[in-house]
Each structure stands twice: as C-alpha cells, then as structure tokens.
Amino acid sequence: MKKPIALLFILFFVNSWTVFSQSVSKERDKVVMKTGEIYYGEVVFRNDEMLILQTDEGVRYQFSIAEVKAIYKETVDGSDELEKMQQEGQSDEIQNFFAVLDACGGISSAKNSFDVSSNTQVAFVLGKDKVFSENFFVGLGVGYNSSYLKSNSSLNFLPVFLRLQNTFTNNRISPFVRMDAGYAFSMTSGWDGGALVKAAAGISSRLSYKTKLFCGIYAGIQQFGGKLSETISSGTYYYEGTTNMRQLGVQLGIQF
User: Fold this and answer.
1) Among 111, 110, 121, which Cα is nearest to 198's?
2) Can you tell me the distance from the alpha carbon of 74 to that of 86, in angstroms, rounded to the nearest whole number?
3) How far is 28 from 238, CA to CA, in rounded Å?
4) Domain boundaries of the chain, sorted by first residue
C-alpha cells in the first residue's frame, strides 16, 4: 500500500516541478535585421564584423554586423514562451512552404538523333523546407525544356518532377546540391517522352527569411523515343526507337 502512495507522491512532485520550471522567467536575445527579420536566441559570439546567434533548438545563424539593425535583451515568462512557441510552430509550418523559379541554359545531345545543340529550360517548383533536417527542401515541379536543332526545328518536352535539395549551412552564402527526378512529356509531334534525372550543385545566397538566389551547374539525362538514324559503312538507316538526351549547363533560380 505504501509503494503506490509513494509513487503517486513522486509523480505529483515531478509534475509540479515541471509546471514551476516552465513558469520561471528567463532572458534571451532578440536580433532585428535591417530587412525586418527578427531572430530569438542567445548571442554566443560577437565582434565588430559578425555575430552568431544560437536558437533554443540549437540552430546557429551567422550574421554580418552591417546587416543588423538592433540587438535587445528581453525577459520571457516560461508559460508565455511555451504558448508563443506553439503559435510560432504553427506559423513556421506555413512559412516553410516556398516557390522556386529557375532557368537553365546549356547544351544537349542524343545518340542517333541529334548532335550537340543549345538547350534551355524554365521550371516552377512548389515545396516545403526543413523536411528531414533544417535545410532540406522537397518539392514538386513542372517545366518546359527545348533543344534547338540544326535543322531550324526544336525538340520540346514538359518535365514533371520531384525535387530534393540540401543546403549545407544556415549562413547567408552556402553550397547546395539538388536532384530532380520524374518524367518528361513530349510536346513535339512524332516524338515520345521518357524518364529524366538531373543533378545540380552550386551556391545559394539568402536575401531574407523566404528569399534565396541560386547559381550552379547541372548535368542530366532524359530518355525519349521517335525516328532515329544510324550510319554504317553501307549507308544510313532509319528506325523507330529510344535514346538518351544528355544535358549540361548553368542553372539560375530564386526561392520565395
């Protein structure tokens, strides 16, 4: 009989201590940027050129002093902070949705179809940041891809794809890697679409909480089908089949 009573007493004590500890006030730093962004946490490093802020979740942000408008100390009640964190968490879920607009320019070629030709693509992506980790983005995109052939014609596709992207740090300037995988629907009569994979790597530049610029290089491969040709010693033969288009170039984009 004494053991259950002792256990209930311990549980009551732990619960009371938890409530009490949440109600204890504490100080935190409030960093206001010239862009209007506000960050909360603890300033763990500061000099004449930069500061580093660590949030309650352990995430660190590095800022240039020239970008900071003001730094404040504020006292936060534990219970109020818990409620605020819940509200901010719901707000963050909305703020973590982004749109991306990017443009690619480079070259493409396809064996038994066409030699090296100029290639362009524009794409629009909708997705969510902070998936799996702090800087991991997952989205769905659609684009328009064109290869301009020497015969004054073009080979056009409508790619629909899943995008996975990882930005390595929270710094204003950070390297990133990206992969698109999906299917390209043919927009040119007489040709069929096929699966696609494209990888890219480069540098991202964060302008504000929701706005980033991207610049990098990409390489991709896409399958398509149609009338192909092959030249051998006895002549040139034409046939219906599939081949792979290889792409290489530069990619620019903006996230907002």
Assistant:
1) 121
2) 19
3) 73
4) 25-95, 97-255
- Three-state DSSP class for 7? helix
User: What is the DSSP secondary structure assignment for residue 67, as one 8-state letter?
Assistant: G
Q: What is the pLDDT of residues 71-102, one digit of tens each?
A: 998 876 655 554 454 445 444 555 678 999 99
Architecture in CATH for domain 25-95 = Roll (2.30)
Confidence of residue 171 (pLDDT cuts 50, 70, 90): confident
Tens-digit pLDDT profile for residues 231-249: 888 888 999 999 999 999 9
Residue with tokens 């995430």: 59
- Structural class in CATH, domain 97-255: mainly beta
Which residues make beta-bridge pairs with 44? none
Max alpha carbon distance in the chain (Å)?
100
Per DSSP, 65 falls in state G
